[in-house]
Amino acid sequence: MDKLSENEILALIKASAGISLRHVPDRTETDVLGSVDPGLGVYKKLARKGLVVITEEDLIDEDDPDLGTWTPSVEITDEGKKVLTSTPR
Q: Which of 5, 15, 62, 79 has the fewest CB atoms within 10 Å around its CB?
């Protein structure tokens, strides 16, 4: 596997705790203090590598759509955990 970028490593760290897709910016952002927030493209790249899974937004109960939907999220895979633990930070 190719070496991961700093943004990809940061995204894996965030995904290891589980992150709502609603909290992922469309593009990578840097705040005024210099903290980086990886964008959706970074997570999609990790998903293509099999290191994270981006869940779908599904109805909680198809028979009762008024219950709402599951919030899509980004979750780290077992392979992602292996890569994260073996990557020096």
A: 62
Residue in the block written with tokens 């840097």: 30
List Cα–Cα distances, 46 to 18, 34, 55, 58, in angstroms.
Answer: 14, 23, 13, 22
Could you tell me the CA-to-CA distances from 31 to 20, 23, 38, 66 in Å, in that order? 19, 14, 11, 37
Alpha-carbon distance of 15 to 8, in angstroms, equals 10
Task: Fill in the amino acid letter for 22.
Answer: R
Query: Residue 77 CB: number of other CB atoms within 10 A?
Result: 17
Q: Residue 17: in which H helix or E strand, if any?
A: none
Coil, strand or helix: which one is 54? strand
Task: Give pLDDT tens digits for 23-78.
Answer: 999 999 998 999 999 999 999 999 999 999 998 866 566 676 666 666 788 999 99
